């Protein structure tokens, strides 16, 4: 089992999941009701910098085509190791809405030291062309690793070896025989330009 596998296991089982519901109506304000799926985690997500109010739901409310909404949360490293975070989404409903909505954050890929809390802004973007959606939901999963996510060979630096592994796996999907999970840096099930971009952005980084 690789270091990443070990930590991914921890991330999947102990990660904080936020379940999000939103309403999408042309002229009415949406409402939502959300339940936390997991709270005991190596990382915690909170509404405040003091990490006292757990964030287990985000209500995006009404979201118009072409609009965006920002939500600020605080991610706390609750274990005795330095961590790096990764934002992923799961279980989009309806499934096709993931083609018209995109979730980003402004986390800078910097190390999160033990006990520290990082302020991050989550941004949900709606395509100008989205239509026919009354409501939607998806899960946010913030994963953590003791290695930078673009450090594929776990040598504490991002260099040509990491880029090479991504390039070799390019255009491969999770269902294929030659699939290399480690090259799928953003964990979206395919190795493509997004993974190359992440590696390129971190290129030259050396960390401890
Ligand atoms: Ca490396
Ligand atoms: Ca990917």
Secondary structure layout:
Elements: H1 3-14, E1 17-23, E2 43-46, E3 57-62, E4 68-77, E5 84-93, E6 101-105, E7 117-126, E8 135-145, H2 160-168, H3 193-202
Parallel strand pairs: 1-3
Antiparallel strand pairs: 1-8, 2-4, 4-7, 5-8, 6-7
Helix pairs in contact: 2-3
This protein binds calcium ion (2 copies).
Low-confidence stretches: 5-40
Alpha carbon gap, first and last residue: 21 Å
Rg is 18 Å
Strand order of the largest sheet: 3-1-8-5
CATH top-level class of the largest domain: Mainly Beta
**Biggest sheet features:** 4 strands, mixed
> Structurally, how many domains make up the residues?
2
- Mean pLDDT score: 79
Shape: globular
Q: Into which percent range does the helicity of residues fall?
A: 10-25%
SSE sequence, one letter per element: HEEEEEEEEHH
CATH architecture classification name of the largest domain: Sandwich
Q: Structural class per helix/strand content?
A: alpha+beta
Q: What amount of the residues lies in strands?
A: 25-35%
CATH topology of the largest domain: Immunoglobulin-like
Bound molecules: calcium ion
Total helical segments: 3
Give the strand tally: 8
